[in-house]
Amino acid sequence: MKILAVSDELSRGLETLIVNDPQKLDDIDVIVSCGDLDTEYLEFLVDGMRRDFFFIRGNHPLENSGEYFEPQKAAFSSRGVRYVAGQPDLHGRVAAYKNYLFAGFGGSMWYNGEENQYSESEMAKTVRSVERSIAWYRLRDKFLGRQRKELVVVSHAPIANIHDLPDRPHKGFKCFKAFMDKASPFLWLHGHIHLANQYTNQISTEGPTTIVNVFGCKIIDVSRKSIQVTAHCYIGS
Ligand SMILES: [Fe+2]
């Protein structure tokens, strides 16, 4: 599986590639957004590439348009769940995709009371709910004699003490660390932590888990023995 992961900053290089050279993205299976990106940008990616799509929201509202698109519309909302490009927000949910389970945690650490900010205990509650969903999926697969699905976690905020920063808005969640130790995902994608530029990779390994700061646009190839992360600008160059 090859994931095109995006977060926090628009990638004009990616937009150009989709318009002028889309065949270079032919082997991408799924688009994953780790938050803080415009609805319009995400819809452009999904419409342009016509791929499966997962997203969580960051600490900034989806309708809070960035530098490029006009602020037009909030993501479509139904029964309290936001939709982008026809897909529901993955926050607090688990979705099966191919031989993988995708689990999502949006938002950031609480710092000024605006939308999509959570205290440690609020996020821990969401983590427990996700753990129950994972257990249910695993039980169902076992009962049906299916192969155990590997876990991919998509969060906006980082894990405590891994890629996080000391200021309150950018602190990582301790409950994420406990969840990672327990659930052993093989891949954890996060956003929220801005790097010097989009071509920088920030990757850590904790036991069986590879943790990737997606900032900008990264292609993550998990089909090989070791996970490979590439900044999009290197495609075909
Ligand atoms: Fe953020």
How would you describe the overall organization of this protein?
This protein has 237 residues and is of the alpha/beta class. It has helices spanning 12-20, 39-49, 120-143, 174-183; strands at 2-7, 30-33, 52-55, 76-78, 81-84, 87-88, 94-97, 100-105, 108-109, 117-118, 150-155, 187-190, 202-206, 209-213, 216-221, 228-231. The protein has one domain (2-234): 4-Layer Sandwich (Purple Acid Phosphatase, chain A, domain 2), CATH 3.60.21.10. It contains four helices and 16 strands. Helix 1 (12-20) links the parallel strand 1 (2-7) and strand 2. The model is unreliable at 64-74 (pLDDT under 50).
CATH class: Alpha Beta
| Tally of contiguous helical segments | 4
CATH-defined architecture: 4-Layer Sandwich
What would you call the structural class?
Answer: alpha/beta
Mean pLDDT across all amino acids? 90
Largest sheet: 6 strands, mixed
Shape: globular
CATH fourth-tier homologous superfamily: Metallo-dependent phosphatases
Strand segment tally: 16
List bound small molecules: fe (ii) ion
Order of helices and strands: EHEHEEEEEEEEHEHEEEEE
The N- to C-terminal Cα distance equals 22 Å
Q: What order do the strands of the largest sheet run in, or round the barrel if closed?
A: 7-8-11-12-14-13
